[in-house]
């Protein structure tokens, strides 16, 4: 099992501090989000995700870094692919790219984009991810898609990694099909579901995802859990161990946790001391 830490820093000082903590504790990966504002409270400071990643890329050495997840609401796939290549170079080949369909009305409002229907969101997501997948593979042919057409794409320089790892966030059937077609990794989180309900639904999603990748002649994708919502990783060190055992047993390869709040820091420190054993 690998472990990642997700940080949505309000200052660069905070971003650097958590990067140091994550590396010193032995975390495998370090992540930030991609939102223009906090969805619930605009007073909460939020920085641009790719800019934070670029800063981490230049100031860390070992740890994998990634965007979890790039928000399709206000990103074009060609621009995102170019950003990904740049971050891959700055990090010397340690970058991973997560892609999601977005959801929050606040993101739509800030981007000046009407809130999409479920059908349009699914259609856009399929085209967006397929385009990013082609571009990361070096295919710069013109694309005449319904939502994200482009001409004359330039992919120079090539990324350091042969193919920048692509993580697809998916829960619904159409999004899972997109992950089966294009993803190296799949990420999921509880959202508003209770943990037991999520666990049961996730078993079904894993079986569906594995069957679809097999049908396409692709190897199983790496499975990533974002411990969020009804999953509380920092309630106690023993609870963290049980979380690892519970989700390792159903096939997860990595658990990513949000950085702890001040009241959770003591538990985080205990877990960090056990991290090697849990891996």
TrEMBL record:
GO terms for molecular function: alkanesulfonate monooxygenase activity. Residues 10-244 form the Luciferase-like domain. InterPro entries: Luciferase-like_dom (IPR011251), Luciferase-like_sf (IPR036661), SsuD_RutA_monooxygenase (IPR050172). One of its GO terms (biological process) is alkanesulfonate catabolic process. The keyword NADP does not apply. Coiled coil: none annotated. Keywords: Flavoprotein, FMN, Monooxygenase, Oxidoreductase. It comes from the Bacteria. It holds the Pfam family Bac_luciferase. This is LLM class flavin-dependent oxidoreductase. It comes from Actinomadura rubrisoli.
């Amino acid at each position: 099992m690998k472990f990642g830490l997700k940080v949505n820093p309000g200052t660069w000082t905070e971003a650097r501090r958590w990067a140091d903590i994550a590396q010193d504790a032995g975390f495998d990966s370090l992540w930030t989000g991609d939102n223009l504002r906090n969805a619930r409270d605009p007073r909460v400071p939020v920085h641009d995700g790719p800019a934070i990643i670029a800063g981490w890329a230049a100031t860390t050495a070992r740890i994998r870094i990634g965007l979890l997840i790039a928000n399709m609401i206000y990103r074009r796939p060609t621009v995102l692919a170019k950003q990904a290549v740049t971050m891959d170079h700055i990090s010397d080949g340690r970058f991973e790219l997560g892609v999601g369909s977005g959801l929050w009305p606040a993101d739509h409002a800030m981007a000046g984009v009407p809130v999409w229907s479920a059908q349009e969101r699914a259609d856009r997501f399929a085209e967006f991810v397929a385009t990013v997948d082609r571009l990361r593979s070096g295919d710069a042919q013109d694309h005449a898609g319904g939502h994200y057409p482009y001409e004359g794409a330039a992919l120079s320089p090539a990324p350091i990694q042969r193919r920048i790892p692509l993580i697809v966030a998916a829960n619904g059937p159409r999004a899972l099909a997109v992950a089966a077609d294009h993803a190296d990794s799949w990420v999921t989180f509880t959202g508003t579901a209770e943990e037991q309900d999520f666990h049961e639904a996730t078993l079904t999603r894993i079986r569906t995802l594995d069957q679809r990748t097999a049908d396409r002649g692709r190897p199983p994708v790496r499975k990533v859990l974002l411990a969020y919502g009804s999953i509380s990783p920092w309630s106690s060190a023993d609870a963290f161990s049980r979380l690892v055992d519970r989700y390792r047993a159903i096939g997860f390869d990595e658990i990513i946790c949000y950085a702890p709040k001040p009241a959770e820091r003591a538990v985080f420190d205990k877990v960090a001391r056990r991290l090697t054993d849990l891996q």
